[in-house]
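Escalated from tier 1: fe (iii) ion holo job.
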Amino acid sequence: MRIDLHTHTNRSDGTDSPADLVQRAHEAGIDVLGLTDHDTTEGWSEAADAARRTGGVRLVRGIEISTRYAGAGVHLLAYLPDPTHPGLVAELERVLDGRNSRLPAILERLGALGIDIAASDVRRLAGDAAALGRPHVADALVERGVVQSRDEAFVRYLGPSGPAYVDRYAADLVNTLGLVTAAGGVSVIAHPWAGRHDHRALDGAGLDALKSAGLAGVEVDHQDHDDAARAELHRLALELDLVATGSSDYHGSGKIDHDLACNHTAPEQLDRLLEMADRSSAAAGRTAPQVVGGSA
Ligand code: AMP
Ligand code: FE
Ligand code: FE
Ligand code: ZN
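Tier 2 regenerated the structure:
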């Protein structure tokens, strides 16, 4: 069984359409695919149609929500929530608004460095994306010939210590855990110990407190975690009885070294997660999305 629970499409900052993502996952021999665009469910219906049509790939619909905890950014993977839950819808709108309103400030900073990029160029390059982000600004910098790649754009301009870095609104993590539960979904913290995040608050005590607030699991096997971090997080997940997942965080050609299925989730961990999702939707009394495609 190949299970990859964290991937992106061009509805956020990936480069494949949702249908292409499902097709590529099929070709890569993936049995269960998690679609988790940043802060949007826009890709869900196209991907679900493709999964039903393609067969073979079972699709778990999710969202990677931009949150904040103890002053630091945390990416929360929300699986199978009811996408019409009013509180969740409102919070995602706030995050998307924050993404849009940050763009002029980033472009102003680039302008001060003598790099003139129009908002319309960034929006053109963002195409079908509902979640506008720094990767699209990076694409504009590549188009201009200022940098060669998204990665170089983050290193030189857009990353947290770069001269064009601008912060944006993020949802409160504990509040978001409650929203995901209320929407009948389950929550997993994405790449909790990635070096680019300040993860001091996500130690054993922090994760235990978050479990009490509704957290179901942690993404352990991820390219941003070295072997030592993976081993320690696996140990913590076991100790705290959290589900441990593994995934690629695939972004198409938008992110190097994140090929589909480069990490995966163990079948018994997926089973636990899906059982928790079933219990969550029953307790919330919401009609949550089902896993579609394959033999499901
Ligand atoms: P934003 O959501 O606008 O704050 O931008 C953050 C997004 O940029 C993350 O979701 C990553 O997928 C992407 N990202 C961060 N660092 C890099 C990098 N070095 N190369 C390509 N994409 C990156
Ligand atoms: Fe991303
Ligand atoms: Fe992330
Ligand atoms: Zn991601």
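The CA atoms of residues 194 and 224 lie 5 Å apart.
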